[in-house]
Amino acid sequence: MSTDRLPSRSDNYSEWYNQLILRAELADYAPVRGCMVVRPYGWALWENIQAALDRRFKATGHMNAAFPIFIPKSFLEREKEHIEGFAPELAIVTIAGGEELEEPLVVRPTSETIIGHMYAKWIKSYRDLPVLINLWNNVVRWELRTKLFLRTTEFYWQEGHTAHATADEAEEETLRMLDIYADFAENEAAVPVIRGLKSDGEKFAGALRSYSIEAMMGDLRALQAGTSHNLGENFARAFNIRYLDHQNQLQYCWTTSWGLSTRFVGAIIMVHGDDRGLVLPPRLAPLQVVIVPILGSGDQRQAVESAVQRIEADLSEFRVRVDRREGVTPGFKFNEWELRGVPLRIEVGPRDVQEGSAVLVRRDTSDRKAKETVRQEGIAATVRDRLASVQRDMLERATQHRDQNTHRVGSYEEFKSVLDGKGGFLHVFWDGSAEDEDRIKEETKATIRCFPRNENGERGRCFYTGGETMRSAVFARAY
């Protein structure tokens, strides 16, 4: 692993991001254009994300299943808006086993269509509803411009798919999952988010309504970090998903889908990382504590090793590693674990052994020289407390960063001036059309990230049209 100095975020944010992923061994470029190899350290982070989400899904009655990666092309053509939205990104198999296929197969870009086909077979009565299924899988979308984790040709995610008897139940499910994503983002990843409704121009292809959680990155750009879609009856009608209601009448189901992908790894990197490397939230970090023995010589070595073994055993409830590598200096190890974002580092040397103490260093603080001497006795309680403080402080700093870079603007001229001068999130009153939205995007590269939920009903004039409205929108330049 290279521990050469990273490019600074202020000089070249994009290169800082790319180099950090490679040097921290989260991922590497695959031989197929636009694909990535997720390395064990990066996969461990993704596994912790999976576990945190999976607990939430199962607590709300969802069950996991698996569906094929190949989908008949005709399935996607049944929902017109869906196929139009995904057509440019499809990877299609036409030859298999040395023969041309009678019908081309699409490599799964998302699973609404094959889910619809199966739900039509399984759902017959109101007694079969609701159906609450989640998938953990990979999908392929042939992206033109790719970036590790943020946008790759193949990526990993979860996609939930549910069927309901009524429109109200489907909307309730859609918003429940949006709230689950927000809860995960803030309480596990320490990433503050805005939850809201997407504009028609930004919604999922084939959805009635789309909602998202939007996060601000370190360079003030937005990232759509998770989405939840109310599909209405669109896919039910396309795939004939119907049920007999209490009056023995056939009704179409109302369906939803929702997803969060490995792009959230990119969100964690860009929200919390600094010029020294990753800063990982303790609840998701692959390693929560690294212990670095400073062995000394002679009898000191055995005394230090014995103390380290006791501390490691005392910290068994945490994800801990002891760095016993020989041939590299403690300083080299410190830099490497800083680069990899381990929340806490514990140093144990001969003097610490004599005094029954250890040196504890938090990764999230800006002062790398800030060290705390703690007692070896009761160290598990100390570590538990410090990890909780790191988690809490990371969310607080990220929230302050977002709030300090969110600006209320009242005119289009002010909008353009603030966007180019300060950047960040621009909070506006909005009464514009889809055409207005497209013009703003073309002229400024900024898009409506969402119409925030739980607004206070304040009335104002649209920054673009001047029309009076109660609707607010958040604009930003985004990944």
Low-confidence runs = none
Proportion of residues in β-strands: 25-35%
The percent range for helix content is: 25-40%
Q: Oligomerization state of this entry?
A: single chain
Determine the number of helices (DSSP H or I, runs of at least 4 residues).
14
CATH architecture of the largest domain: 2-Layer Sandwich
Main β-sheet: number of strands, strand sense, barrel status? Answer: 11 strands, mixed
- Mean pLDDT score: 96
Q: So what's the overall shape?
A: globular
CA gyration radius, whole angstroms: 25 Å
Number of β-strand runs: 25
Strand order of the largest sheet: 3-7-8-14-11-10-9-22-25-21-20
The total number of structural domains is 3
Q: State the separation between the terminal residues, measured CA to CA.
A: 28 Å
Q: Strand pairing plus helix content: what structural class?
A: alpha+beta
